[in-house]
Design goal:
two-stranded antiparallel sheet; 15 strands; elongated
């Protein structure tokens, strides 16, 4: 077994969860139960030295091997992260069969979807990753299923498998623009009616396109085209306590 590092991932994963809360997930050192280097059209990993194994890690590696051997048609590869988290990499066409297997198999029993995340990596051909975080209460285990898509290719909705995925997929659609086929009510959930664009895409401007304010004339909140009062602003973040520049003269306290 070896440890691996994902290439081309962003430093921070934007998480779309309940009521749009944000989860910062730093890029981690990952490990996989395969030797040397693993490459594919969508994922690249580099082998490095593996940390000592604990009982939890061994169980996760055994579970990952079982999932990969049982779903050879769908699973590209599995790995255990440096924080002892099992990840399963699949193509977008395998979402329904893989999630159904993880829910129904007696050795898995991942019957709860805890979260669905979106990740935007514009440098990739398939710029979006969709990440499913599943929980097995009976076995006290978690698994992360990762797949990919682009701006135009939809993904099968997993609402028929996990009813709790309804709002999660709506948030991924709202924030990233990933379309889910078969979703019973795919519409925006966080942004306002008539909002244009998807705010968590990396090419979406930080300032946005419109601004909202309360209008006394119509007695309601209205949206107007964004007007920046200043084209360019320079911010100086130097601490006001650093009174001497670099190379300044140090005063002798004994004087």
């Amino acid at each position: 077994s070896v440890e691996i590092v994902m290439l081309g991932l962003p430093r921070v994963f934007g998480r779309v969860g309940s009521m749009g809360s944000t989860l910062a997930v730093a890029s981690r050192m990952l490990c996989v139960s395969r030797p040397a280097m693993i490459t594919s059209d969508h994922f690249s990993v580099v082998a490095t030295e593996q940390p000592p194994k604990g009982e939890k890690r061994v169980k996760l590696e055994e579970l990952g091997s079982f999932i990969a051997s049982s779903l050879t048609k769908y699973v590209q590869f599995t790995q255990v992260t440096g924080n002892d988290e099992l990840e399963v990499f699949i193509p977008p066409s395998a979402v329904i069969p893989v999630l159904t297997f993880l829910r129904d198999n007696s050795l898995c029993q991942f019957k709860s979807v805890a979260d669905i995340c979106g990740v935007d990596i514009p440098t990739r051909e398939n710029r979006f990753e969709v990440v499913y975080n599943l929980l097995s209460v009976s076995l006290n285990q978690r698994v992360r299923v990762r797949t990919y898509t682009d701006e135009l290719t939809p993904i099968d909705s997993c609402v028929p498998v996990y009813g709790g995925a309804n709002w999660y997929e709506r948030e991924v659609w709202d924030m990233f623009g990933v379309y889910f086929i078969g979703h019973p009510d795919l519409r925006r959930i966080l942004t306002d009616y008539g909002f244009e664009g998807h705010p968590l895409r990396k090419d979406f401007p930080l300032s946005g396109f419109v601004e909202v304010r309360y209008c006394e004339d119509v007695k309601r909140v209205i949206a107007e085209p964004l007007e920046l009062q200043q084209e360019f602003r320079k911010f100086d973040f130097q601490s006001p306590w650093e009174l001497l520049p670099s190379g300044g003269t140090k005063i002798d306290s004994s004087a």
